[in-house]
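I have been asked to look over a protein record a colleague put together. What it holds is a sequence and that sequence's fold in token form. Please read both lines and tell me whether the tokens look consistent with the sequence. I do not need a full report, just your reasoning and any doubts. This is what I was given:
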Amino acid sequence: MAIPYTLIKTLEGKEPYLESKGRKPKQQAKYLMDENMKGIHLGACLDSCRWGGQIDVLWEMNINEMIGFIQNWMNQNPDNFQNLWHEKKISELYTQFELPYIRHKTCPRDKNHKGIFLDKKGKFRCAHTEIQRFKPSFIGENEAYFDSLSKLKEITFRDTQEEEYPITTEDWEDYGEIENMPTSLQEEYNAWTDKIQEERTVEVNNPCFAILSDKRTVLSLETILTRLNLSPQTNTKILFPFDGWTLAFYAQKWYEQNPIGNASAFEPQKPI
């Protein structure tokens, strides 16, 4: 772990923190966003509105609010913010500094899965596919869901044979035998028993598609902050294992992914 920059400044005999004049972190953040970040390094601004020590640092804002804070700083410094991320260059403090990419040596869903492919967006995905076989009359589609490992909308299927069984427990209690049941119910039962003789001729491919690596992709600022955040997603606060100066480096690396300056701040809305 790199030495916190606030400690480096202290060891150099410099004031480690931006003056806040007694304002608490939340008040300081509000003050800075009110046109008071002009010409000030992002690292200094971020480090002046957080709680905690040199590591495990907390900000009283959620991910969206943090993105808004960084964008506000950029808007206050439209002509020179690219020179104001940090007092130092990344290479001066780190031999290697990367964004929090997904990296797995084996499939995160099942280490026994085999095969990898590169999708059109630059993600390496698991190529493992399982085949399900269904009877033509008993195949049902499950409700679509968002899969956290593939980051895709997934649709799966199920065997509906038991679900479509026409005789209820109450029917058995009331009539005792099939022969005693109403004709319509007997016909339903006979049709069901005919269908269960079907062969499982319908094949459905279930590809895994779990992401093994997304290092070749451009990450949104939302994704970067979400992966770094140690606090529960539903929390109104965010917690990172580093100070505001290091957070500024992550913001810089996010922006520099796209040289024309329009790196995405937010992820596209997830499918429902």
